[in-house]
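New to this. Please check this fold:
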Amino acid sequence: MMRKRGLFFLVWIVVLLFSAQSFINGMTAIALTEDKEKNEQQLFDNEYGKASIQYQIKENHVDWQINIHKNDNKEPTRLTYSLQDVKDKAVILPTMVKDDQSSENLFEVKTDKSIADYGQVVEKEVSTAIKNDQIKFTTPVVSEVNLKISLNTKTDDKAEEVGFSKEYPITLVKANVTESTTIQSSLGSSTVESTATSSSEATKESTSGDVTNLGDADEATVDSAKKEAEKKYEETGRPQVITRSAADSLGFAGRTYANIEPQYITDNSGTYPEYSWIPDGNTNVINHQGKVGGGSSWDGITSWDGNQNNKKNSYIEYGGTRADADFAIRKYAKESTRSQGLYDVFLNIRGNVQKEITPIDIMLVVDWSGSMNDNDRIGEVKKGIDQFVNTLAASGISDKINIGYVGYSSPGYLNNTINLMPFKDAQQRIKTFTPNKASGGTFTEKALRDAQNQLSNGAKDHKKVIVLLTDGVPTFSYKPSSVKSIANAPKTLTEGEKYYADDSENTIIGQGNSSSLNGYYTYSPENGNRGNYVKNYPTAKYSENSTYVRVPNAFVATIGQAVKIKEAGTEIHSLGIQLNSDVNAGLTSEQVQNRMKQIATKSDSGVLYYETANKASGIANYFSNKAVQIIGTVSGGKVIDPIGKQFNYVTNSLEITSVAGSALIPNYTEPEKNGEIDINNLNLGKGQEIQIHYQVRINTEDENFVPDKWYQINGRTTFTPNQELPDNMVDFGVPSAKAPGTTIDLTKKWDEFDNNILGRSDLLFQVSRNEVPIGVLKITSQNEKSDDKNIWSREHVQKISAAQLPYNETIWLPKFDNQGNDFKYAISKELTELTNYESTKIDDNTWKNTKIFTPLSLKITKKDSITGSLLKGAEFAISGGDLSESTLLESIGDGTYVLPKNITLNKGKVYEVREAKSPEGYRMLNDPIRIEIDATGKVSISNKELSNANLTVSDNVITFDVPNKPKVPLPSTGGSGTWMYYLAGSLALVVVGGYLFYRSRNSKGVA
C-alpha cells in the first residue's frame, strides 16, 4: 500500500514538474543555462553615451560586466558606480577582475571605510571618451542590489559636477530547475518568477511591472526594446521587464520589431530624407528610400516613375525579404498633373502569414435562432464562413489549425456540432454546415460551454479561440447558484452586469424571447419542453458576503460561462449583429451592447475582441477579417498619419483599395483639413496588400511659407502591426515637398518741372495680391538707375515687409495660392506722401511722382556776348499768356531784370519777352524771346539769336541770359581814320578790274 502511495506521489511530482517547466517556457523571462548565458540590462543611452550591465550567477559569487561607451562630443567626464545590498542597506565592495581588458587599469575601488566614497568604483582620470570598454568585477551572491551610476563633468579648474546620475534596482534569483537558472530583471524594480510559484502567484507577481516578451526576436529588436523600456520607465516610473523565451505561449502576438528609423536632413533648404528618391519628371517632391529585409543600408534607388501600381520599389521590409517579409510598408508622394501645388500621397502596407505560429484550435459558435432569418443574416453567415475557411486554406499554415463548429438556438430546436478536428478534415463540412433557415431562441451559455469542452479535449499547448456570432440577447441560461463581482472577472469589461455566475445548477431557465428573468419558465434539456413557471427573479449566493442577490437576466450566467472560458486561457472573439434593446429586461441597446462586450475577451493590452455589425452584410467581412487577424502578421493594425503643418488635406480625397490578395478594407473616417488620418483594425495575411491614397495641397498662403523650401508632407507616420502591442510602432518614411515663389518689380519715375530733386525721399508702397493688400515695399535713392537719375528701380524682389514700421522684408511671394491658381501681384498704392509731388500709377509696377506746379517768376540777365559782363540800361517787356497787357520788367540795377512781384507766369501758356531798349553801344534783339510753359510746367525758350541762354528753373524762377553784341563804330568826317577807308576802296577796285581784264583775254584765246 505504501509503495502504491509512493508511486502515486512520484507521478504527481513528475506531472507538476512538467507543468511548471511548461509554465516557465511560456510565461517567464530568459532561461539561462548556468555558466553559459548572461542577462543584460540597458542602463542609459543619452548624450553622454550608453551603457548596459550583464550579470551571471555562479556557485558562490556573481560575475558582473558593465559595457560602457562615452560620446566624445561632451566635455571630459569621470565615471563612478557603486552597489548596495537592498536587504540590509550595506555597501557591496566589488572585486575588479584582472584580464586583458584595459578597464582594470582605468578604474579603482575606494576601500577606505572612513571616507564617504567607500565602495565606489571610480575612473582614475576624467576622459572625453571610452570606446566600447568592459568593466568586469565580482560580488558576493545577493538577492537584490541597487546600482548607482554617475558621470561627473569637469571643465578647466572648476570642481567636478554631476552631469548624469541614476539608480537601478536589480533583482537576482537563482532557481534550480533541471540545472537551469531563471533570471528576470527590470528597470526601476524587478519581477522574479520562480519555477516553484503557482500559476496564480506568478500572475500576481508579474503584474508588478510592465512585461515585454520578445520571444525569439533578433538582437536589433532586443536593443530597441531595451531603449524603449528605459524611456517608458522614466515616463511612468513603472518597472519595465524585458523577457525572451524559446517558445512564446502567445505565439505570434508576442513578436516585436525593431523600428527601422528613416533618416532626414534639416538645413537651410528645409527638411527632407537623407536617403531619397524623386519620381521621374518631378521637381517639387522627394521621398524616402526603402530598405530590403532590414539590411544594413537603404536600397539606393534614387528615381522611378512613382506609378501607384508598382509593388516592388521603396518598401521598408520587416522580418524577412520580399515575399518572405512579415510585413512591408511604403510611403511616397508625387506631383499631381492636374494642378500645381497638389500632391498625391500613397501608403502601401503588405502582410503575410505568421511563419512560426503556435498551433491553434478554433471553434465557431454561431447563432441559429429564428431572428437570424431577418435580413438574411443566416445567408450572410454562410458567405462569411465560406470566406473564413478559404482564407485559412490559402494561408499555408492550415496544417497547424484545428477547427470545429457549434450551431445553436434553444432546447428542442436546431442545434448541431462539428467536433474539433484537423482543418483539412473539417474544411468542406464547415462550408456546408450552416442551415438555410434558422429557428428557436438563443441559448448562448450552453453553446459556449459546448465549444469550450471541444477545446479542452484538444492539445494543451495549442492556442484556443472561440469565434461567437449572435444577433440577440440570450433568452435562456442555466440557473445560477452563486455569483461574484464582475470586478474580479479576468479579461472582462466591468461596465454592464455587476455580477457573473460563478456556479450554476443544470436547470435551464428563461422567457424564450427576452433575457429578462422577471418571471421565467424551466425547460427540459432533452427536448426543450417548457416546465414550471416561476413568478419571481431567481436568486444566487453572493460569494463575497454569503448574502443572496437577485439575478435579473440571462446575461449573468452567460457572462459567467464566458469568464470560466477566459480563465482557462481561451480567447473569445465575438460579433454582435444588429443588436436592439431588450424592452422586457429594461435594457437599452447600449446596455445590451455593454453586456455582449463582457462576453468577449479583453486582452492584457486592453484590446477588446468584440465588434458590431450594423448591417447583415458586415457578417461576411467579420469572418474574413477574423481569419486574417488570427493567422496574419498584421492583426488589428493601425496607421497614424498626421497632415503636415504646411499642408492642407483635400476633402474627400481619401481612399483605401486592395492592391493584392483581396485584402479587406477597414472602416475609416474623413480627416479634418489639417487633421490626422487614422486607419484602425487593419488585418493582412499572406499576399494581401492595401494602398491608402489621398491628396494634399501645400499651404502657400501661410505667412511663414518660404518658396523652394522642403516641408515634410506629414508628421511622424507610424504603423502598429499588432493591436496587442500598441507601443511597438514602426515608421513610414515621410516625403517632403516644396513650391516655387515669384518676384515683383517696382519702378519709380520722377518728374520735376523745375529740375529741383531736393524734394525726393525714400518711399513706401503697398503691395497687393489679387487686389488684397499683403505688405509693404520700400524704394530709395540707392535704387537710382545709373543711366537715368529720374528713375528708381527695384527688380526681382522676392520678399516684402509685413508693415511700414518696423520695416523688415520677411514675407515671401509664393507663385500660386492654396488652390494652385497663380497669384497676381501689384504695387497698388504709394503710402508715402511727399509735399509738392503728385503720385500717379502708370501700371501694376510703375508709379510716377510729378512735382506740383507753382506759378513762376522771371529773371533775365543781360550780358556782353563777348566778355560776359553784366549790362545795365536795357528794358524788357513781357506780354501774352494770361497777361492783359504788356509789362516792363523791373531792373535790379546790376544787369538783371525781373517780373514785378504781383505778376507770375502759369503753365499751359506762351509768353513773349521783347527787348524794348538795349544798353548803349549794343545791338538790340530783332525778335522777341518766346517762353513756353507746357501743361506739366516744363519751360522752354526760343529765339534764333540766343544760342546759349543758360535756361534754368529753380525756386520757382525762370532764369536765362540775353547776350548782346556791341555795335561797330564809324569814324568822323575828316578824321584821321578816313585814309584807311579810301585805301581799302581803291584796293577793291584794282582787284575787281584785274579780274575782269583776265576773263576778257581768256575768252579771246589769249594764253
